Amino acid sequence: RATELQSSQADYIQALRQELNTRPSLPSSEVDHRHVSPWHITTRWHSYLDGRDVSDALALIAIPKEGDLLFSLVASVKSYMQGIYGTIPYTSELCRQILNTDILTEDLNHTPFSQHQMEDTLRAYSRLVLQLLCFLLRSEADLVLPEAVSQALAGLRLSLNKEIDDATSAIHLLLLALWTQNWCSTLANPFPDPTVCFVIHTQLNRDGSLKGPKDVTGIFAKLVYNIRLVFLKECHRLCAEDPTHPSHAVAARSLRPWFTVGQESTFHSLRSLQHRASGIVISTQNEPNMKWKDGSNFTTLIYLGHEVSLDALRRCQGAIEDATRILLQDTLLFGHSFNIDIAALKDDMGNSQPGYSLFTDRINAQILGSPDQLIDHILCTPALRRRFVIGLRDGKIIWNGVALSAWLNAYSKLDLLCLIQAEMNCGAPGRTTELTGMPRTNTKTGMLRALRIIDGHVALMRTYHKMRAAQGLDRVIPHSLNASLAATFIYKEALCRSFAELCANVLHPDNSKVKSYYQDYLFVNYDRPFVGDDISEEMKRWTGQHLGVELGIQKWRQCSTPLRRKHAGLEEMWLEDQDTVD
Fold first, then answer.
1. Ranges under pLDDT 50 in the chain
2. What's the pLDDT at 231?
3. What is the pTM for the complete model shown?
4. CA distance 223 to 131
5. Beta strands, E only, 239-378
């Protein structure tokens, strides 16, 4: 009897606890304003979500899967976005300057509207357009739409089962109709703009909460860029079909009210919200997520519940250096001693001639030796020759592709170890896009080599690209290398690079892109450039083993900054970002 009572009591308490843990859904008007963040106070987005089911709200912006009625929209949006994007370089510069000017004034932005730095960036922008169109098609019954938008939406729905050209035309007409409307709030409809409503849905978490302002600035920036893309497309269409628009610039001027601030429009709303979000993020102090351990004399941080100490970091870096040295000397150079007097190397710092680097400078030729000396060593060493060479045919060497591939994999591993050391050891951590894309020599298109010698110091010249599209320029940030890493760079470029080029040429004889990677990039991941995930995963592997906590790129930047400030005298130059908050 007592057992039954205890069991019944436990069930009751468990059911009661579940009921008590269930949060009541209060209308936004009854929520204490002191419990609402400044960002949500200014946007009032939480009131838009009153009475909405979270799962249903998120389903409205879900990417359609195969078998979905809207699945054909995926290919149509991709075709539409790639088509417009490809016209950017062939549009008049004046037109692109008009498109990139936010204010309705004759003082134009002299930096024209341009393509992104990375080729695959458009994919994220296209995804947002796809989600917006799905939202419109799925929630049409709940939206109050003007006649022009309703007709365009009906046209898109009809085109889904037609040719892709019909669908892309319908997409353009819908986006144009959507973004050339005066969306004015009323008491009955405080959120009339479907684009803003769509943004609210992207900010909804699965638990019903809303994301903060730092999570929405990227959405705004992408939508603003997409709006300009659509009006670029309209400029081309008007020039082709309307004789009153003799040039792209004339067409752009006639459309300016819809992509400048100061008029009721989607563009104005997004830019206004973007500036507010950025202002709040910049001026709001983040909650602390780390502290110095008491009594450690600023040598140990408590970060993510783990201790990160200078001693552990030294052990970690020492282990990476040892692995790098062994890989270079034993695997890539086969244990043979190649001597280079690094202190005697010269670098013409002002030389901007295409193809120049300290390795092509004739003054260093005698110090570096022949660029093919590793190949000569392989061919002159019987054991290595048997390993790498199958035979001769018509006077040409037949190489062992398996052996070449294994060596090239090891060379890529060396590049990765150099990358993570450059990220972790050399000044303030750089953006991985800048590290992975460093040029090996001066390029024909005006970018200078990354590896240089400055007053006896081997340095990486990191170039800050992020604001190129907005400001039209890059910023150069030099990072001096420590002795071990500097020697690794010199030996890998002077001795290993030539054989790596040979391996790439043999393994990929018809792939000119792979060959160009080994000629142009300082770091190559076998048959492609490195990406941020490659660096982050390798950093996690080493830090997890030696620090007890896995630190990828982002977490490393956070926890390394206070250590650098205290022990390296780091004076960081904060690089302002006008469009997004990084």
1. 465, 570-582
2. 96
3. 0.72
4. 11
5. 290-292, 300-303, 306-309
